[in-house]
Prior knowledge:
The protein is an alpha+beta fold. It has two domains: 3-76, 3-Layer(aba) Sandwich (Glutaredoxin); 87-201, Glutathione S-transferase Yfyf (Class Pi), Chain A, domain 2. The protein has helices at 12-23, 39-45, 65-76, 87-115, 124-147, 159-173, 185-194, 198-201, and strands spanning 3-6, 28-31, 53-55, 61-63. The chain has a four-stranded mixed beta sheet, covered by helices on one side. Strand 1, helix 1 and strand 2 (28-31) form a beta-alpha-beta unit. Helix 1 (12-23) packs parallel to helix 3 and helix 6 crosses helix 7. It is globular. The mean pLDDT is 97.
Amino acid sequence: MRMILVGRFLSPFTRRVAIALQLARLGFQHQPLSTLDDRAAIAKINPLGRVPALILDDGETLIDSAAIVDCIDELAGRTRALTPYSGIDRRRVKYWEAVALGATEKAVAAFYERNRRPPEKVHQPWLDQLQGQLVAGLKALEAQLAENGGVLHGTYLTIADVTAICLVDFLRAQKSPVWSDKDFPQLAFAADRANREPAFASTKP
């Protein structure tokens, strides 16, 4: 039995797991269940009804993208892991991964506030707060890419970069009002460059 990744690539959390699996050269089947249309099926896999979930080849199920990526790094081994094993390098990658993940959470929450409520039910102060936090995260990622030569830490792509690229592509796909390539040229370039690679191109939303 091959591993099974549950969730659509429109979810930046599911997509980052799919990219991590491909970069680690770990084969998997994709089960593109939707949290809107396939709630009952997802609830059988994750009681919270959330994606992604990864069913390992022995039948064990992992939930939450951070836990799944940690397992992928373990399976990949040190030479292919997307997170350094220890020390300052690991801490800095985890820092920038957390910034990118936090911004992604705000982006998804803002999307639901704008698009899943009737217009008269949208709470504008809450939406403004979400989008303000998202922009702050984007600005921090943009500045770090400029300072560090196009990647968030070190000299090669890490899970922090993968997460940031998934965020950019989610914002582009959803036509987020806070995103513009010209406002965040470093992030835009990083995403465009990555999306020429199979692991990114094959999962693009």
